[in-house]
Amino acid sequence: MTLLIDAAPLVALADRRDPAxxxxxxxxxxEPGGLVIPAPVAAEADYLLGRRIGRAARHAFxxxxxxxxxxxxxxxxxxxxxxxxxxxxxxxxxxxxxxxATIVLAARLRTRRVLTFDERHFRAVQPLQGGAFDIxxxxxxx
Length: 142
What we know:
Blueprint: E1 3-5, H1 7-14, H2 21-30, E2 35-38, H3 39-52, H4 55-67, E3 71-73, H5 79-89, H6 96-108, E4 113-115, H7 119-124, E5 134-136
Parallel strand pairs: 1-2, 1-4, 2-3, 4-5
């Protein structure tokens, strides 16, 4: 099974002072399947890590990508039309590229599992394949 990962948990994972760090670590350690970061999320995480924590955190993240700890998944050219449609369809949520890419990749990878702190978006949006997103870590874990 695949777990899609959003930017904020990656920042929490790198920040020793973040109260959600252990919940993120536990969720990742317990995951039996692939750990996938959508390419726009990887860029967002790189920026946030550098801005909020520093260069060493960015380098550690890049090392994790290079080692294969996380797989970065790119959108296919035809999937950008779906991203645009999602962003317009949920205009009141201001989803943006990273969240829309996560939704599209969830459909392609046949998963509803997302490691995110963005419950507002991922509870409001229905996965393209139907059902509801399974959001980790759960509120009781954080």
